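REVIEWER CHECKLIST
Item 1: Sequence provided? yes
Item 2: Single chain? yes
Item 3: Sequence as submitted:
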Amino acid sequence: MSGTLPSFLGDLSNLQVLELAWNSLSGTLPSFLGDLSNLQVLELRGNLSLSGTLPSEYGSLSNLQELNLYYNLSLSGTLPSEYGSLSNLQELNLYRNLSLSGTLPSEYGSLSNLQELNLYRNSLSGTLPSEYGSLSNLQELNLYRNSLSGTLPSEYGSLSNLQELNLYRNSLSGTLPSELISLSNLQEIRLDRNDLSGTMGIEFHGGAKDNNFVVTWETGKGNHRFYGNGGNDHLGGGSGSDILYGGSGDDDLHGGSENVTAHRNRDSLLKMPSKQR
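Item 4: Structure as written out by the authors:
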């Protein structure tokens, strides 16, 4: 399917799902889709010739649960703060729109039902909003490969349902907040390729699923402990004295640049990589 989105779509007042992914649509995202008051899913990903900005009018879609506008490489502009009014939103996927710029709207911290926030591989800048620590249902927070700066907010330690925290390849600085220890459901954390530092140690406990804990040399000289449990775990130490505990699966334990103690079962493999990344 090619061409622009037809205007009659704005008249379909009972429409609940609009899915036109991976076509060859062109033109701009029409503001009239913001009139679809019953819409629950808006799926327009992978239309590489869609251009222009993200319409602020989509913030009026009060019943929207999924907003998937990722991998539309010609979209530009900033993230509309109005999307913070989407009270029923569960998935916000706006990643791999390489020309999306500006800062992360603090208003998104009001999305109380949000489970997935994926804004990676854009051109976002500014700091991480502390307000995102109020997203009590959030399971995935993926903001990697942007130009974000500042510190990692301690408020993120309140994200009790968080399973994935991927912030690598930004320009974050400061120390890892000790509050992250409270993330009991965390299965994956990647903070590498930042300017994080400090001397404190943190401890991550993996659940029964596969875990991917990577805190590399840039994280500083903390004494980190990584516990795999039941899954096939990838545990990466930092630049301090790290203790890596493999679980009952096939574990891949990567020590850091100083003292490493590895406790593994017979299926685990301990690797001591070079500092190169």
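Item 5: Key structural point noted by reviewer: The radius of gyration is 21 Å.
Item 6: Recommendation: ____
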